[in-house]
Structures are given as C-alpha cells and as structure tokens.
Amino acid sequence: MLALQQYSSDEDNSDHENKDHLEDLTAHLRPINQQNAISSTIQLKAAPEIFTKEVKYNPKYEELFAPEIGPGNPFKTQQMLAPRNMMSGFAEPAHISDFQFDNQRKTFTSYGYAIDPSVDNVVAEAKLVGDSSKSDDNKGKTVFELTQKRPEDKRKRQRNDDSSDIEGYLGPWGKFVDEKTIMKPNEEEKKELDEILAKRSKTGKQTEEKVSEEKTTLHVKDAYDYQGRSFLCPPQDVGINLKSDEPPEKCFLPKKLIHTWTGHTKGVATIKWFPKSGHLILSCGMDSKLKIWEVYNDRRLVRTYSGHKQAVRDACFNNSGTEFLSCAYDRFCKLWDTETGECKARFTSKKVPYCIRFNPDEDKQHLFVAGTSDKKIICWDIRSGEIVQEYDRHLGAVNALEFVDQNRRFVSTSDDKSMRIWEWGIPVDFKYIADPSMHSMPAIKLSPNGKWLACQSMDNKICIFNVAGYACQPDFSPDMSYVISGDADGKLYVWDWKTTKLYTKFKAHDDVCSTVLWHPHETSKVASCGWDGVIKYWD
C-alpha cells in the first residue's frame, strides 16, 4: 500500500510539473501563433477556392483550364512552354474533304502548283503556290478538271444490242470499227510453231513409271517335304515347341556367333521374324531384293523375291505369315505370297514409303498403313487396291509405325521430331508428344507385354539407353529381362530392363548394325543384320 501511495504521489507531482511547463511554453509562443493565425485568415479570405475540397457549383471552362499558379520552370525552353494538345505540338482542327485534299496534292505532284491552304479561298481569285507559269498555261485547273480522253477512247465499237439476234448480238464485246485484222503465220512458221508446241507437250506430260517385272527364285531342292509340307511349316525336330505362344521363362546373354547368312550384294536394311514360330527370317536388302532364310537345321537360303527397282526399306508379315508387304525407294508397296513368291498386288502414291504395317486385328488383315515421305500415313485396302484413309498431321516424313492398345491405336514418329498417337480410322491425332529437347525417332518397338515402347532417338538414345544415331531397331527379350540394340559402329548392346545396367557389348558387324531381334522361343538366340550385307545369328 505504501508503495502504491508513493507511486500515485509521484504521478501527481509529474503532472503538475508538465502543466507548469506547458503554460510557460504557450505563454512564450502566443504572440507568434497570433501572427500566424492573422496571416492564415487573410490567405483564406483572399482565396478560399484554393483550399476548398468540395465544389458546390458548376465551374466554367475558363476556370477548369486556367493556367497553373506558381513559379515557372526556368529550365523549360520556349517550345516546351508552348501549349500542346499532342506530343508533337498543337494541332488545330481543320475541315476539308478527302477528295479536295487528294485533288490538290495530285495537282501539285503532276503540274507543280496548288491552292494555298493557309489563305481563305472563298474569294474569287484563290492564291496559288508553286509554278505560276504552268498554272497560267492550265488556267489554274486541277488534275480532275484537266483529265482528257485518250485517243484510243475515241474509237467506235461495232454495236448490236438486239438480244433477240442470237448470232449477231455483240453487246459490250463488239470489236472496234477500225481494228486491224490479226496476222496469221504462213506454212513454214506454222510448222515451226507446231514443233515447239509438241516439244512442250512432251516435257509437260508426266510419264508413268514402268513397273519392274516380279521374279522369284527357290533355292532349295524341293519346295515340299515327303509329307507335303512347305517351308512355312515350323520344324518339329529342334527340341522347342515353336507353335507355343508362351515366351521362354528365362533369357540369357548371347556369347558366340552361331551362323552368318550371306547372299545380299549390298547392305541389309532390316530383318523380320516369321510370325509366332520364328523358324524363318526375312531380310530386306539394299540390292532391291528380299530373301527368306532358315533359322534351324541347315539354315539355308530358301527363296529370293525380286521386283523392286531400288533398295527395299521395310517389310511386314501378316498374322499367319502366308503373305508379306514390302516397300522400297522405287515408291511402290508390293504384296507377296510367301510360299510361291508371287506378287499379288502393287500400291503406290507417287511418294517414297518409309515404313509399312499390316493391321494386326484378324478382321482387318486386308488393311495396311504406310508412312511416306510427303508427311502422310496412307491406309490401303488390299481387296480393292484403293486408298481408304489418310493421316496427314505430321510436318515431316513419317519414319516408323507401331500398333498399341490392343491394336485400337497406332503410334507414328516423324522427321518433325514429334510422336503422334492415332485412333484407328480417325485422321486426327488425339495425342501429340513433342519437346524442344526431343530428336527424331526413326525406329520404335513395342514390348512383348504391350506396355512399353522403345524409341530409338537420333541423339544416341533409346529412351535412356545409349546407341548410335542411325535407325537401329531395338528389341526386348521374350521374358522382358533385357533390351538389345545395335549402333553405328556395328556393336551389339544388351541392357538389363529393370536396372538399366549395361551387361555386355561386342562387335557384331563391320558397318552399322541396323536391326537386332531376340528369338521369340529361344532363351539366348539373337539375330542381327547390318549395312555390311550379312545377317548373323547369336547364342
């Protein structure tokens, strides 16, 4: 309590001291405040509008646009101080018709004189600017007033406006009365003109390319065995059930060269396994020939298919393997009978086909698609030989095609560095994959389980795997344990699918190793082809 009483007494003492101090200060400042108050009242009485924040009347134009009050800026020039209503100065409103303005401008350009626009020209004699001599010659007339008819306009036309006269009616197309007759060439000049026109017509015509004759050669002694089976039937004495659809349980790395197929005179572009069994291998050669080889037993060359005029680019079997399609740089796609070697049909769009695929659905085996050099994917019907659909959304040549999602869709890659996914039969891509860091992907492969696409990119990658910058076809092992691919140096690479570990690499070809295929029923057998013209079989 004593502390509280002492604290309150201290507060009272301090308040008294503050009050005394304020009284002394006010007594000292009172004369100054009185002087300021008198001056402020004088200013407010003199100009109350300046300090008023609320306008209680409608001000006039002169008040709103009154000049600024205050000291002038000594650093502004006379030009800067001049009134302006635009950036370049003060523009006065002028009312003149566009016709009169163009008329005077053209008169000054043509004759060198015009009416002075700065003088009021309402008076009788307008003041002119420019060449007075020409103005006197033309009597001060403008271009519009001096316009004269041309000499040709004076000519009279033959007229017959009677529309009932069917043969003699001329209308506005009548010839001039004094029009000269057209000179006709004599016989010699006519012969020369005919020769010139004949040469032009020949060069202008697009001659159809002659289709080369298709031939086939059987290289084995007998086309059928003692039971009447052709080479399309898989052998039954190799210790493996080649008719089974199940992949092997475990795959191993190939370590040695088993066999080398030779027969092509130039490089091999790609190779394809015979569907399901894989007991035959089809090769597409740059020597414009296709060859089919045995994989088991003697591993002989069975048949050669000749019919293309230039290098064969791609090929594709149908589901049963009885037929296959080939496309080449001669701009033709051809349908072959695998057993007899007969060419059943030819298809061309006048463009180079880079890739070709049958529709894998059993009820659509009569349809196939081909990616061409004119940025299109063309679908043909084998039965009619006609184009039934075109997919033309790419901006570059189409390089690869692959069916996905239970064959309801297909994927295409192009030189435009993009990947597009299409619904079958709909010519508009429903998914477009592109990125500035992406490169062209000239080869793609679907994994055996149908969930993954291995895309070989031109920046030396298969997705995340290093390969060469060529169209080197990758492949998966049947059990999804390994991914294999070739490269530009002819080497063969094997990676682990899950860990991305590089297991092995070895020299497979003397040139680019273009395609590597893992046998669908063998645990460690791999076929490879390269630009050195040979096909090798590894185990």
UniProtKB/TrEMBL annotation:
GO BP annotation list: mRNA splicing, via spliceosome
GO molecular function: mRNA binding
Keyword line: mRNA processing, mRNA splicing, Nucleus, Repeat, Spliceosome, WD repeat
WD repeat segments: 261-303, 305-346, 356-390, 391-423, 476-505, 506-539
Region of interest (Disordered), ranges: 1-24, 131-168
Biased composition annotated in UniProt, kind: Basic and acidic residues: 15-24, 133-162
Protein location: Nucleus
InterPro entries: PRPF17, WD40/YVTN_repeat-like_dom_sf, WD40_repeat_CS, WD40_repeat_dom_sf, WD40_rpt
GO cellular component, one term: catalytic step 2 spliceosome
Keyword Repeat: yes
Protein name, per record: Pre-mRNA-processing factor 17
Organism (species): Mytilus edulis (Blue mussel)
